[in-house]
Amino acid sequence: MSLSAQPTASLFIGGQPVEGQGAEVPVRYALTGEVIATLREASLDQVAQACAVAKAAQAEWAAMAPVARGRILGRAAAIILERNDELARLETLDTGKPIQETLVADWPSGAAALEYFAGLAATLTGQMIPLGADWAYTRREPLGVCAGIGAWNYPSQIACWKAAPALVMGNTMVFKPSEETPLGVLKLAEIFIAAGMPPGVFNVVQGRGDVGAALATDPHVAKVSLTGSVPTGRRVYAAAAEGMRHVTMELGGKSPLIVFDDANLEDAVSAAILANFYSSGQICSNGTRVFVQEGIKENFLARLAERVKAVRMGDPLDPETNHGPVINMAQAEKIRAAIRAGREAGARLVCGGEGEGAFIPPTVFADATDDMAIATDEIFGPVMTALSFVDENEVIARANGTGFGLAAGVFTQDLTRAHRVVAALEAGTCWINTYNLTPVEMPFGGVKLSGLGRENSAAAIEHYSQIKSVYVGMGGVDAPY
Ligand code: NDP
């Protein structure tokens, strides 16, 4: 079967596919390195044009009844779910993630976001504030044009998670996916048009960091929502500050997963697997520092090493494959360097290792110390670092001993301890006796260097809207002279 995934054109502006005028961007299938599409970046003029088109479309879109906007998002969700098989295959080609994951996780969670915010449309209201004879009210208004910039691990989900709250509020959007994974979001743009969205409401530009930087500083852009690494986040946040633009920053992490000795061991091992190896470890919220209480440490590691033997690495399009390649060879080499550094620092390799080509097997280090690079740096690959601990206060202090604060997990049967520990953890998203579940109903985002703003849930609306206060004078006006 041909793996060609060439789109009609590289960009989508004003309701139309438009060819980019910038440099070529080859899109490769991570398994083989085969070029499956060749796109062109947007020129800086095209970025400006996309933002101008989004600006021109915004007033009319915002003037529609919210339920009418919601209905369009709902129709888009239905189209996505009808076409899920085809879209999942494209996502696998774009990312290299196993089809058994992309069928259930990527577009379906994007559709869930569209459905959720479609449903919320009718509830987006202001407040009435009685002031005696006078009164005031608030209007929740859109920000204007929002720029979305995505990472390569969940390209279509990220686009939907940003577009759904932004668009339902009456904003318009210009989205730039990672140059590594440019294909899925072009489908989303087409699906929005098929669902009845007016042209210009959702636009796509392609390109590397300089295109992202031009987007983040375009004079028409009122808000920048980035999913990416902390260094990129710092740059984009600083660039946005110049124009006093709003930001949402969904950045990296080195999250703790704490397993107390009373935990259900089998469930804790399952969670550690999901928290480190799903999507070949390319998940921002992964629990890559697994703190295991001293008494169960060796049992935990033995069971983990046993379970990991069932991994099936191979062609991501094979439905039996449950562990695919990482996004590209450069990323694989970075992960290998981190694994070598872990060995050289004296950590014990329990299973896995450097792998071959773009494949890195599930890799577990034990006997690591908190200051080793494998315990401090985000690797963004399937590498778990197990650390042992003795008591609760100690583990809380060590779990918080990082600049990151995206997520955290606690495994214990002790109800009060679970809630006490979670309350003390410096993380935006926590799980008790599970890990990495991010339903659209629940706010998602980080604290500290992991970012600001929240995606998903009604909380996301606050980050795509602003409040206008209106004082209504009901009587005469008293002036001193
Ligand atoms: P990067 O930070 O390298 O890139 C993110 C996006 O920003 C890409 O589209 C990139 O373009 C773009 N970009 C790069 N430089 C600039 C700039 N100066 N101005 C504007 N845009 C720019 O992240 P990765 O794609 O490597 O993704 C991995 C990172 O993302 C990890 O740190 C991971 O933890 C984080 N992440 C966070 C999530 C969260 O929700 N908190 C979820 C998923 C990932 P291009 O790639 O085309 O150069």
How many DSSP helices?
16
| Major sheet | 7 strands, mixed
Query: SS-based structural class?
Result: alpha/beta
Strand element count: 20
Instruction: Give unreliable regions as ranges.
Output: none
Summarize the structure.
The chain has 481 residues and is of the alpha/beta class.
Topology:
Elements: E1 11-13, E2 16-18, E3 24-28, E4 35-40, H1 44-63, H2 66-82, H3 84-95, H4 99-102, H5 106-120, E5 128-131, E6 134-142, E7 145-149, H6 155-168, E8 172-176, H7 184-194, E9 202-204, H8 209-216, E10 221-227, H9 230-242, E11 246-250, E12 256-259, H10 265-277, E13 289-293, H11 297-308, H12 329-344, E14 348-351, E15 363-366, H13 373-376, E16 383-389, H14 392-399, E17 407-411, H15 415-424, E18 429-432, E19 451-452, H16 459-462, E20 465-472
Parallel strand pairs: 7-8, 7-10, 8-9, 10-11, 12-13, 12-17, 13-16, 15-16, 17-18
Antiparallel strand pairs: 1-2, 3-4, 5-6, 6-20, 11-19, 14-15
Helix pairs in contact: 2-5, 2-7, 5-6, 10-11
The structure holds NADPH dihydro-nicotinamide-adenine-dinucleotide phosphate.
Can you give keywords for this protein?
binds NADPH dihydro-nicotinamide-adenine-dinucleotide phosphate, alpha/beta, 481 residues, globular, seven-stranded mixed beta sheet
Describe the structure.
The chain has 481 residues and is of the alpha/beta class. Helices cover 38% and strands 20% of the residues. It has helices spanning 44-63, 66-82, 84-95, 99-102, 106-120, 155-168, 184-194, 209-216, 230-242, 265-277, 297-308, 329-344, 373-376, 392-399, 415-424, 459-462; strands at 11-13, 16-18, 24-28, 35-40, 128-131, 134-142, 145-149, 172-176, 202-204, 221-227, 246-250, 256-259, 289-293, 348-351, 363-366, 383-389, 407-411, 429-432, 451-452, 465-472. The protein has a seven-stranded mixed β-sheet with strand order 14-15-16-13-12-17-18, with helices on both faces. Helix 15 (415-424) links the parallel strand 17 and strand 18 (429-432). Helix 2 packs antiparallel against helix 5 (106-120), helix 5 packs parallel to helix 6 (155-168) and helix 10 packs across helix 11. The longest helix is centred in the first third of the chain and has 20 residues, at 44-63. The model has no long low-confidence stretch (mean pLDDT 97). NADPH dihydro-nicotinamide-adenine-dinucleotide phosphate (NDP) binds at residues 149-153, 176, 178-180, 208-209, 212-213, 216, 227-229, 232, 235-236, 250-253, 284, 378, 380, 406, 446, 451. Residues 149-153, 176, 178-180, 208-209, 212-213, 216, 227-229, 232, 235-236, 250-253, 284, 378, 380, 406, 446, 451 line the site of NADPH dihydro-nicotinamide-adenine-dinucleotide phosphate.
